[in-house]
């Protein structure tokens, strides 16, 4: 069932569609009129507008269908006259001369201008009466027309990914070249930045969009239509701090992602870096869940959160029926390790637990957030004055943050400061507080 548009929002969307039409941006206008019709199908004026837009795009069959629908829904003669005239023009292009003449007569009967009818009559007389091949349907699917023009047109020639259909997931991002861990995949400015996401500010942000960018946003999934059109799209697609970022929103979710998104405050951009090596043609996945909500939570909890926030049931490699029980075992153990670390006293036991947690992550195909544990490991080693081990774990934390967030991200820069001055009490307040001890035998497996 279509969701009824708030009348004020409907008026706003029509104004944006009319603006696009008047600028000859007919694909954008078509997209906006279609969205309005899908959510307010009983208004014949919208079909009249879309019929004229289809005429401009030479989509004769769809122009005919919209004019016919407008005749069913419109009661005023002036609107019926417009619908007959637009269907007359479309039928002429489809070589349905008889039908076009009938529409021209109906146009006059409903008060159409005789001079306009006379010009069209001359065109009908000159139109061919038969052709070898008559195209009865428009060639380009309207969904493809929208996605190709509205979603994909902004991809730069040197982009390392492309947005295209993903089976069962709408659109998705796919690598167009081989990527390595730490490669920057994209850096994108938000299209709807909202510093204070109140309903008023969200609506205000959408209303400031150009018709094209508005049409692009309306193509995004809305998991919360009950709270309002713009609020629903925002709450489904917005990223913390950034707001709505169009291309980033097209990256699909996995609980074992091969990429990671993060907000870079200095540039005001949402960025995505590769977590693993990614083959050309492989789909690029990020996790919509963060930190322990993904790597330390069972499938049931992750699915519940994803369903309530984004309205889908995850079927990723960690969630499919063949693997999820073993994955759950690993992730629940990781969660127990994290919760028990603050209560551990023995430094060796803490470090062995850190190694175990990161190893379990990697075994489960999760290559992010190892720094969560490594930072604690570095601090423990500093407390026992094992500076070689402290440097080892601080370096691990820095290299992982640089790969996942970028070396210029504040997270990575903070880790760099710790790595440069591990003995500083500012970086490690507990440095040297415990009896000297060495943990050089506790390291991660080399093949990590």
Automatic annotation (TrEMBL):
Disordered: region residues: 408-436
Matching InterPro entries: SET_dom (IPR001214), SET_dom_sf (IPR046341), SET_domain_protein (IPR053185), TPR-like_helical_dom_sf (IPR011990)
Pfam entry (one): SET
Domain of life: Eukaryota
Gene3D superfamilies: SET domain (2.170.270.10), Tetratricopeptide repeat domain (1.25.40.10)
Ranges of compositional bias, category Basic and acidic residues: 408-428
Domain SET intervals: 159-289
Name recorded for this polypeptide: SET domain-containing protein
């Amino acid at each position: 069932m279509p969701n009824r548009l708030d009348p004020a929002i409907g008026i706003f969307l029509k104004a944006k569609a009319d603006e696009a039409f008047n600028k000859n941006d007919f694909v954008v206008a078509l997209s906006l009129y279609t969205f309005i019709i899908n959510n307010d199908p009983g208004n014949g004026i919208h079909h009249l507008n879309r019929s004229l837009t289809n005429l401009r795009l030479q989509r004769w069959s769809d122009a005919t269908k919209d004019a016919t629908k407008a005749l069913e829904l419109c009661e005023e003669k002036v609107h019926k006259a417009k619908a007959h005239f637009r269907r007359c023009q479309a039928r002429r292009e489809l070589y349905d001369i008889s039908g076009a003449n009938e529409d021209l007569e109906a146009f006059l009967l409903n008060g159409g201008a005789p001079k306009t009818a006379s010009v069209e009559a001359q065109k009908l007389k000159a139109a061919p009466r038969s052709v070898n091949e008559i195209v009865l349907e428009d060639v380009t699917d309207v969904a493809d027309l929208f996605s190709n023009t509205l979603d994909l047109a902004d991809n730069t020639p040197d982009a390392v990914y492309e947005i295209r259909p993903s089976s069962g997931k709408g659109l998705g991002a796919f690598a167009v070249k081989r990527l390595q861990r730490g490669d920057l995949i994209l850096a994108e400015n938000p299209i709807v930045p909202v510093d204070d996401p109140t309903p008023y500010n969200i609506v205000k942000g959408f209303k400031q969009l150009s018709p094209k960018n508005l049409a692009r946003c309306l193509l995004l999934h809305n998991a919360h239509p009950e709270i309002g059109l713009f609020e629903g799209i925002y709450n489904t697609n917005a990223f913390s701090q950034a707001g709505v970022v169009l291309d980033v929103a097209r990256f699909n979710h996995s609980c074992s992602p091969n990429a990671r998104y993060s907000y870079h405050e200095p540039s005001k951009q949402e960025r995505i870096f590769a977590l693993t090596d990614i083959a050309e043609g492989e789909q690029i996945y990020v996790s919509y869940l963060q930190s322990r909500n993904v790597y330390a939570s069972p499938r049931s909890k992750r699915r519940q959160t994803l369903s309530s926030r984004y309205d889908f049931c995850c079927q990723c490699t960690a969630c499919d029926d063949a693997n999820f029980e073993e994955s759950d075992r690993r992730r629940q153990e990781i969660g127990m390790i994290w919760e028990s670390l603050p209560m551990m006293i023995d430094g060796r036991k803490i470090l062995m637990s850190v190694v175990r947690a990161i190893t379990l992550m990697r075994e489960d195909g999760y290559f992010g957030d190892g720094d969560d544990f490594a930072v604690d490991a570095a601090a423990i080693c500093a407390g026992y004055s094992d500076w070689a081990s402290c440097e080892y774990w601080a370096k691990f934390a820095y290299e992982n943050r640089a790969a996942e967030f970028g070396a210029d991200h504040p997270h990575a820069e903070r880790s760099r400061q710790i790595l440069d001055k591990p003995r500083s009490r500012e970086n490690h307040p507990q440095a040297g507080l415990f009896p000297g001890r060495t943990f050089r035998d506790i390291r991660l497996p080399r093949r990590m």
